[in-house]
Amino acid sequence: MWIEKYRPKRLNEIVGHDAVVRQIQGFVKKNTTPNLVLWGPKGTGKTSIVYALAKELYGEFYDENLMHVETADFVDQGKKWLKENKRLKFFYNEQKSGLVNFKAMIREYSALSPINTPFKLLFFSNADLLPRNAQQALRRIIEESNRTCRFIFATTKPAGIIPAIRSRCLNLHFRSLDKSGALDLLTRRIADAEKVTVTDSGLKTIKDYARGNAVVAITILEAAAVSVSPASSAIDEQIVEEVAENAFFRRAKAEKLIDLTFAARYTDIRALLEFLIEEERISGKELLVELHEALRKRMKTRSNILTSTFAQLVVYEGEADLKICSSLNTMIPLEEMLVKSIREISSSG
Question: Terminus of the chain with fewer CB atoms < 10 Å: N or C?
Fold first, then answer.
């Protein structure tokens, strides 16, 4: 896959984050690094920079001295994940709960001496998913194992990481790649390397779907390159749209829900919500994120929407988000939100 093929191997290959790269290169020169919190949108290079840092610190021993904990896997699988993890399984105790095991296993692992280096790296991606009591335990482990281990936390939601951890780490912000122009550069660079031609309209459409996420952009580019016919020879807007239609089913349906809302089609809204939540098993939270992006997109393309109307619709989104957290049926707050939105749009005229 192109995502792994073109993942940066060195720090100087990372685009769009010059200030962050210079700072981390300074740590490498001194053969050290502080504990880190890397925060910013998805697909901006947080994981890539950790692996590049490890390769520059440890060379051929980077894999032995970097342990990547995908927090979502631990949260979803619990004891099963701990039991099967090749580095932690030696500390596993079947008689203990998943959380107690997690704390004990991380403490034992982080205290072990690393291979041919003063310290190793323990990297938590999606760190905001860690339960707060697990984070509290990590705070103490960070202090206890400072001589043998450095901790790196990556997240899209820095507020989800407790202040006690954030205050013990250097916090580095990763901006969306489309704001710096880095996404254009990266997409063009990969297209040139693969000898693929991308039109300006094709590139713009890839950017629209990617929303600053390099993983999404590269995935679309690879799929479009496979789909392009010899006759067309170039990836244009139409080809990208065809490729993305199925891959971005959820996004397309959210945009349709917004269109139905502006058209005040109550019955169709309810039918589509039922289909997405009950048949497609899309969670209320996931759908709300897509609805927000669809609303923002409509706001940018339709100048007749009043700013005050848009602001009120966002307020309704916030109310729905809060209600979803405690609702047994997530369809109810979403439907309520869209009905309120219809009334607001109608009253604004």
Answer: C
